[in-house]
Automatic annotation (TrEMBL):
Keywords: Signal. This is Lipoprotein. Residues 16-95 are annotated as: Disordered. PROSITE patterns: PROKAR_LIPOPROTEIN. Residues 1-19 form the signal peptide. Residues 80-95 have a biased composition (Basic and acidic residues).
């Protein structure tokens, strides 16, 4: 049973003891290898028609939201806004 781990360790150490093959100048891992050609990339981050339409819709929604936020947290038309000094009536069920 002890022979299997010892054999594995011996195989691993033998692999580390051998020298790797030399790198040729044409190998990409070699420090003497020529640098790759640089080609200018076209940007893929340009806005297409769907992106422009979405941005226009979101901009319109943001303007509408800003208009509604100016009137506070009310539902309905801004004309139906309750007066700031009006207090709600409190009703109690007990006598």
């Amino acid at each position: 049973m002890m022979r299997i781990p010892a054999l594995c360790a011996a195989v691993l150490l033998t692999g580390c003891a051998t020298t790797p093959p030399p790198l040729t100048p044409a190998s990409p891992a070699s420090p003497d290898a020529p640098e790759g050609a640089r080609t200018p990339r076209k940007t893929s981050l340009g806005a297409d028609a769907a992106t422009r339409k979405t941005a226009a819709l979101l901009s319109a929604a943001q303007k509408e939201q800003a208009h509604w936020d100016a009137y506070g947290p009310v539902s309905g038309n801004p004309d139906e806004e309750p007066k700031a000094d009006a207090k709600p009536e409190m009703k109690h069920d007990h006598p």
